[in-house]
Amino acid sequence: EVQLVESGGGLVQPGGSLRLSCAASGFSFSGNWMHWVRQVPGKGLVWVSCINIDGSVTRYADSVKGRFTISRDNAKNTLYLQMNSLGAEDTAVYYCAGASSMAFDPWGQGTLVTVSS
Amino acid sequence: QSALTQPASVSGSPGQSITISCTGTSSDIGVYNYVSWYQQRPGKAPKLIISDVSNRPSGVSNRFSGSKSGNTASLTISGLQAEDEADYYCNSYTSRNTWVFGGGTKLTVL
To answer: Whose CA is closest to B50, among A107, B58, B42?
Structure first.
């Protein structure tokens, strides 16, 4: 069974940092680009970042560039998102997703990040 | 990168067909055949239902179809069923080597 399981979400103060993880199983993790997508509860999906198969290419949405860093460990089948200088606007459910051609599939169940004092 | 434009809501009766539009620009939908569509039910993760404008992944009902003309992509659901009630999002690759989603469309089955 294909599974992507995110972890690491929680409550963090404004200006703080958090690292999200996404563990993959039943899925060719090392052979796929990977993405992070976020969604403010009740709002739409927003693409955040992606990384190529060996981590040599990364891309970011303008809203997180310079603050977030995507990385991966193919030996551990795990994707990461290091989030620094967090603000209230970063409060969202964060999904990891595999790349299927230029689409997103499969998806994890999401992890909630709340930035609040 | 501005979000792609989708209608906020659409509705239809069981058995009918509905179409959801997704309008972008000449920097995304207009230049790439990399439009995908996602279904999201309440409290669940999104599910890919259409990739590369019109390709249906294995296991997705053939009642779902996609198309594109110029800067606008469309998702058509035929033979509407109660289980189709969900939020639908379009997505496109862009000339900035990024991806952009639409704002989402809530489908109500009357």
So the answer is: B58
pLDDT in tens, A93-105: 999 999 998 999 9
Cβ separation of B57 and A105 shorter than 8 Å?
yes
Return the closest-CA partner of residue A17 out of A72, A79, A81: A81
User: CA-CA distance, A15 to B14, in Å (whole number)?
Assistant: 49
Strands B64-69 and B72-77: antiparallel
User: pLDDT per residue over A5-43, tens digit each?
Assistant: 999 999 999 999 999 999 999 989 999 999 999 999 999
- Show the CA angle centred on residue A49, arms to residues A43 and A54, nearest 5°: 150
Residue type for position B10? V
What single string gives the DSSP state of each residue in A34-86?
EEEEEE-TTS-EEEEEEE-TTSS-EEE-TTTTTTEEEEEETTTTEEEEEE-S-
pLDDT in tens, B41-99: 999 999 999 999 999 999 999 999 999 999 999 999 999 999 999 999 999 999 999 99
Question: Across the A/B interface, how many CB contacts are shorter than 8 Å?
Answer: 67
The token pair at A96 is: 């990891």
Q: Which of A93, A78, A86 is nearest to A115 (CA)?
A: A86
In angstroms, the CA B3 to CA A40 distance is: 15
Report the chain A residue with the minimal C-alpha distance to residue B8: A44
B104: distance to nearest CA of chain A, Å?
Answer: 6
Judged by CB atoms closer than 8 Å, whether chains meet at B38 and A45 is answered as yes
